[in-house]
Amino acid sequence: DVKVTQSSRYLVKRTGEKVFLECVQDMDHENMFWYRQDPGLGLRLIYFSYDVKMKEKGDIPEGYSVSREKKERFSLILESASTNQTSMYLCASSFGEQFFGPGTRLTVL
Amino acid sequence: AQSVTQPDIHITVSEGASLELRCNYSYGATPYLFWYVQSPGQGLQLLLKYFSGDTLVQGIKGFEAEFKRSQSSFNLRKPSVHWSDAAEYFCAVAPMDSSYKLIFGSGTRLLVRP
């Protein structure tokens, strides 16, 4: 069965902290994505990766970076977390259809 | 710029009633079209997709959607709603030249009245 897992369901961090969100897929997909989901705004693409060590900015990359050292793992990094980064973060992988993880609800205090 | 509009933020229907969720897109050519569902606390699950061919697409859980090129619409329908259908529904499009890059609508939250 298709599986995308995210390291945490809930996370609480303080302003200025460095935050790592991890995503792992077991489908050998080339493409992986990070979205943030906010009420009334739907999902917005932060970054995506189309191969190991390859990445491309999405629509809202400011304040974020990513890392893809292995095909199955795609990490989202908040270098210095801010309160406006409080959100739900969804990871996806795809080969055609996108498969989503359960999400990480991040609160920055 | 490409965009997806879901004009209804909330919809409430009675269990057993029919359902239609609206989706309009703005794009120069016919894109790939998708409907996803998100149950509370869950990630998104693909209900159905349209790439080409028959404009009436069948999906999982008894859902269907119809692509109307002249109206730039891809509305989701279900003839009889079940309480378990209460969730948030997202329409998404992807340009044909980069089918991996989805653009999402803002979502419609479906409430089901017993």
Describe what this molecule looks like in 3D:
By secondary structure, chain A is mainly β. Helices cover 0% and strands 61% of the residues of chain A. Chain A is built from no helices and eleven strands. Chain A has strands spanning 4-6, 10-13, 19-25, 31-38, 42-51, 54-57, 64-70, 73-78, 87-95, 97-100, 104-108. The N and C termini of chain A lie far apart (37 Å). In chain B, the strands form three sheets. In chain B, strands 2, 5, 6, 10, 11 and 12 form a six-stranded mixed β-sheet that branches. In chain B, strands 3-9-8-7 form a four-stranded antiparallel β-sheet, with no helix packed on it. Chain B is built from no helices and twelve strands. Helix content of chain B is 0%, strand content 51%. With 114 residues, chain B is mainly β. In chain B, a hairpin with a 4-residue loop joins strand 8 (64-68) and strand 9 (73-78). The termini of chain B are far apart. Classes of the chains: A mainly beta (109), B mainly beta (114). Chains A and B meet through strand 4, strand 5, strand 9 and strand 10 of A and strand 6 of B.
Note the topology:
The complex is a heterodimer of chains A (109) and B (114).
Chain A lengths: L3 E3 L3 E4 L5 E7 L5 E8 L3 E10 L2 E4 L6 E7 L2 E6 L8 E9 L1 E4 L3 E5 L1
Parallel strand pairs in A: 2-11
Antiparallel strand pairs in A: 1-3, 3-8, 4-5, 4-9, 5-6, 7-8, 9-10, 9-11
Chain B lengths: L2 E3 L4 E5 L4 E3 L2 E3 L5 E7 L5 E7 L5 E3 L5 E5 L4 E6 L8 E8 L8 E2 L3 E6 L1
Parallel strand pairs in B: 2-12
Antiparallel strand pairs in B: 1-4, 3-9, 5-6, 5-10, 7-8, 8-9, 10-11, 10-12
Task: Looking at this protein, list some descriptive labels.
heterodimer, A: 109 residues, mainly beta, seven-stranded mixed sheet, four-stranded antiparallel sheet, 0% helix, globular, B: 114 residues, six-stranded mixed sheet, 12 strands
